[in-house]
TrEMBL record:
PROSITE patterns given in the database record: NUDIX (PS51462), NUDIX_BOX (PS00893)
Coiled coil: none
Pfam families: NUDIX
GO terms for cellular component: cytoplasm
UniProt KW Magnesium keyword: yes
Top-rank EC class of the record's enzyme: hydrolase
Listed name of the protein: Oxidized purine nucleoside triphosphate hydrolase
GO molecular function: 8-oxo-7,8-dihydroguanosine triphosphate pyrophosphatase activity; dATP diphosphatase activity; metal ion binding; RNA binding
Gene Ontology BP, a term: DNA protection
Catalyzed reactions: O(6)-methyl-dGTP + H2O = O(6)-methyl-dGMP + diphosphate + H(+); N(6)-methyl-ATP + H2O = N(6)-methyl-AMP + diphosphate + H(+); 8-oxo-dATP + H2O = 8-oxo-dAMP + diphosphate + H(+); 8-oxo-dGTP + H2O = 8-oxo-dGMP + diphosphate + H(+)
Cofactor: Mg(2+)
Amino acid sequence: MRETTLCFPMREGRDGETEVLLIEKRRGLGEGWYNGPGGKLEAGETPRECAVRETHEEVGLEVEPSALEKAGELTFLLDGEGHTFCHVYRTRSVAGEPTASEEAYPEWVAIDEVPYEQMWDDDHLWLPGVLEGETVVGKFRFEGGQPLDEAEFVGHDLEWGVSFAADRK
Ligand SMILES: Nc1nc2c([nH]c(=O)n2[C@H]2C[C@H](O)[C@@H](COP(=O)(O)OP(=O)(O)OP(=O)(O)O)O2)c(=O)[nH]1
């Protein structure tokens, strides 16, 4: 099963609303949909290091590793087999201006205007809670063969309020 990360940088917008930095993904899995910056762990890398690197590579933002708050662990199953294990982080410690890359167009979005209809089908089930400061472990079942983003989302289990306090990696 591949191991990946997602990072959701957050800030206070001009009118005091909370905003999240999303990317419109320009290639690869989930192309054309919104997501957080993120991707696959490289050899020897911790999930936290991966989230920092991917956020920098995809949108040019510097995030402080120790200020990444672990918010979730998501398992995506395809036809009954583990396909992706994803560590989810959020952070308010963000420096720099987001810039587009070959992989992603970045956009600050108010958290009550997140375009769930242009995201993976499961995201509306867990991302609102994550953006409100909750923690979650989720399992999401897809069916219909590769690639994952063309398979059908058929079921899920969620557990909220999980502690990741011991997880500093
Ligand atoms: N929000 C969300 N993200 C998902 C879902 N399923 C899923 O694999 N992801 C995540 C896992 C990864 O962190 C992220 C993007 O995957 P990726 O960057 O490895 O894919 P890619 O094919 O573009 O990889 P690469 O070749 O560019 O390295 O998508 C989902 O249902 N919702």
